[in-house]
Design goal:
By secondary structure, the protein is an alpha/beta fold. The chain has a single domain, classed as P-loop containing nucleotide triphosphate hydrolases (Rossmann fold, 3-Layer(aba) Sandwich). It is built from six helices and seven strands; from the N terminus they run E-H-E-H-E-H-E-H-H-E-H-E-E. A hairpin with a 2-residue loop joins strand 6 (152-157) and strand 7 (160-163).
């Protein structure tokens, strides 16, 4: 079962996904895509780490997400991917666009319960620079493509989940 959880910054999407993992009763593998490249990002990562139970296993994979999910997915596991937005940033900055295709190819066939968290970034003003515009476009397309293959899609706004699919 594949679920996409979408929301804006600080919308509660991560807390919602983490709660689903807790309630599943399954062993949880937290697949982290973020990298601590500056102090602010280190603080964000630390905040997420402190929220997670100690018995959850963490796999850090900023770029080869399809490979990590293929290795970790199993019928008796709950995989929580945090998040597609940082994965896409890593892909675009690393010139590894083929990783998007790999991810989209493996997601539908993976066993177990998989929840993928992603930001909905296209609801604001049009960014002022070309890279930011490309990122917003690519993120919207990636979210749409994952939503197409997902069994469930949930939008979280102001901490409230809304089931879209």
């Amino acid at each position: 079962m594949l679920e996409l959880v979408l929301g804006g910054a600080r919308s509660g999407k991560s807390a919602f996904a983490e709660n689903q993992a807790r309630l599943s009763g399954l062993p949880v593998v937290y697949v982290a895509t973020g990298e601590a490249r500056d102090d602010e990002m280190r603080a964000r990562i630390d905040k997420h780490r402190r929220r997670r139970p100690d018995h959850w296993r963490t796999v850090e994979e900023p770029l080869r997400l399809a490979e990590a999910l293929t290795r970790e997915a199993a019928p008796e596991k709950f995989l929580l991917v945090e998040c597609l937005t940082l994965f896409l940033s890593n892909v675009l900055l690393g010139g590894a666009e083929d990783e998007i295709g790999h991810l989209l190819a493996v997601l539908p066939g993976l066993p177990g319960h998989i929840v993928v968290v992603s930001n909905e970034v296209g609801w604001g003003i049009t960014p002022a620079n070309a890279l930011a515009r490309r990122f917003a476009d690519e993120q919207g397309q990636l979210n749409r493509r994952v939503a197409e293959i997902a069994d469930h899609v949930t939008l979280v706004a102001a901490g409230l989940p809304l089931r879209l699919k």
